[in-house]
Amino acid sequence: MEVESEDKYFAHTVIKTFKFNRTHTGINITFDLYRNFGSGVMVDVQGYKFSSNEYRSFPIVFTMNVCEGLKNNDFGLQNLYLCGHPPVCPFKKGHFTICNWAPDYEKFPPYIPEGRYRMNMRMKYRNRMVTSLNFYMEIKSTRFMFYQ
Hints:
Layout: E1 2-5, E2 10-19, E3 25-33, E4 41-51, E5 54-65, H1 66-71, E6 84-85, E7 94-101, E8 115-125, E9 128-139
Protein name: MD-2-related lipid-recognition domain-containing protein
Keywords: Signal
Organism: Ignelater luminosus
């Protein structure tokens, strides 16, 4: 995972990943918000698929309001609130921790092709970039084989 942020908004960002089990990875995040953002934080998401030895643009592209995504539990974002001290909407300045978070894969779109992906997420407030996250993932088949 790679993080770029504007120093006037974010600081002391630490992100650690770990294996929950054989198939799932968890994330621990600690960060400081230096200003109040309210409910107007938007995230632009662009997906890239690894092909021919490089990440190429892939048709996973969308923009969403972060507070609406939390409210609707998009991608299992409500799991953020199971552990730690995550920010709540409207976002206010302070020190925050998110622990043992993993997305809910049941809430992802079906039929994403197998492969390696880079997801670029740009968080914006009033059309100004707050932070940019690149995270990498691999989609593997979950087919079951039955033998007679």
